[in-house]
């Protein structure tokens, strides 16, 4: 991939997703776009980039952007946030929402679905008192392709081996060929929807818990500020925002403050 081709891909990805590809990521672009080029029957990554640049094909541009946006995820990622959800955050929210008996949860940039499904499995294992409640779990991503995979709830042996306890695999998955598929009841507990965090959002309900983990590390400061302000308008005043373990809101003028007594990256709107 030539420097000019890489520069074009960087501009395209930033314009469409706000993700910033740092210098030195040429190898990543080459590898991912070579795989996409092979799938779409182009001779090389360079030929694919030329087709996007010359034809202005919106669908092809979308495929390139989706290929370049990181989709790494796994079940119960980092473990600690899910332990804090179980022991502190969810008991607090359940107490506060006891009258309405409703919880709204949003997994932003959910990729292939392991995060929202992990949340649903956590509820099923530890919160029988939510039976009869209306628990709405929305999972979004800018990539329709990865959301299609997420909706199927179908994972290979490597994917179910990463973070998923064997007991949960046995109880909530069914073997299908060389893969494992979540049972229909778990899949049906999550609504998947295409949503680009860098573009105008559709109307979202007041939300009690937002997962926004390992997303902002790909954005510049102005995009981070705008995103946090928009999330603050969606989140209930006593709700929780969960960021990735390496992410910080320092020097962003954010309306959020870290919940210091909780591990795992939980934030709330500053009082």
UniProtKB/TrEMBL annotation:
An example Pfam family from this entry, by short name, is CheR
**The species this protein was found in:** Gemmata algarum
Highest taxon of the lineage: Bacteria
EC? 2.1.1.80
CheR-type methyltransferase domain sequence ranges: 1-271
* Designated name of the protein: protein-glutamate O-methyltransferase
Mind giving the lineage of the organism this protein is from?
Bacteria, Pseudomonadati, Planctomycetota, Planctomycetia, Gemmatales
Q: Which PANTHER family match?
A: CHEMOTAXIS PROTEIN METHYLTRANSFERASE, CHEMOTAXIS PROTEIN METHYLTRANSFERASE 1
Q: Which reaction does it catalyse?
A: L-glutamyl-[protein] + S-adenosyl-L-methionine = [protein]-L-glutamate 5-O-methyl ester + S-adenosyl-L-homocysteine
Q: Which residues form the signal peptide?
A: none
Class of this enzyme:
transferase
- Which keywords accompany this UniProt record? Methyltransferase, S-adenosyl-L-methionine, Transferase
Q: Does the keyword Membrane apply?
A: no
InterPro entries named in the record: Bact_Chemotaxis_MeTrfase, CheR_C, CheR_MeTrfase, CheR_N, CheR_N_sf, SAM-dependent_MTases_sf
């Amino acid at each position: 991939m030539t420097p000019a081709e890489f520069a074009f891909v960087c501009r395209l990805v930033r314009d469409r997703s706000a993700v910033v590809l740092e210098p030195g990521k040429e190898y990543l672009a080459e590898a991912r776009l070579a795989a996409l080029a092979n799938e779409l029957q182009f001779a090389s990554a360079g030929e694919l980039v030329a087709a996007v640049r010359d034809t202005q094909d919106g669908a092809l541009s979308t495929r390139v952007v989706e290929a370049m946006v990181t989709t790494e995820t796994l079940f119960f990622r980092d473990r600690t946030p899910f332990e804090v959800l179980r022991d502190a955050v969810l008991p607090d929210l359940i107490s506060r929402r006891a009258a309405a008996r409703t919880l709204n949860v949003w997994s932003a940039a959910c990729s292939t679905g392991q995060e929202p499904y992990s949340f649903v499995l956590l509820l099923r294992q530890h919160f029988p008192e939510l039976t009869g409640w209306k628990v709405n779990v929305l999972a979004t991503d800018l990539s329709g392709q990865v959301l299609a995979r997420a909706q199927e709830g179908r994972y290979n042996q490597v994917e179910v081996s990463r973070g998923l306890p064997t007991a949960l695999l046995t109880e909530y998955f069914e073997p299908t060929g060389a893969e494992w598929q979540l049972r229909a009841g778990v899949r049906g507990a999550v609504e998947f929807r295409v949503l680009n965090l860098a573009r105008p959002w559709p109307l979202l309900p007041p939300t009690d818990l937002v997962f926004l983990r390992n997303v902002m590390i790909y954005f510049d400061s102005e995009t981070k500020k705008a995103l946090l302000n928009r999330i603050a308008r969606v989140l209930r005043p006593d709700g929780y925002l969960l960021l990735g373990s390496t992410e910080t809101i320092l020097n962003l003028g954010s309306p959020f403050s870290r919940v210091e007594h909780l591990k795992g990256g939980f934030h709330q709107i500053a009082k």
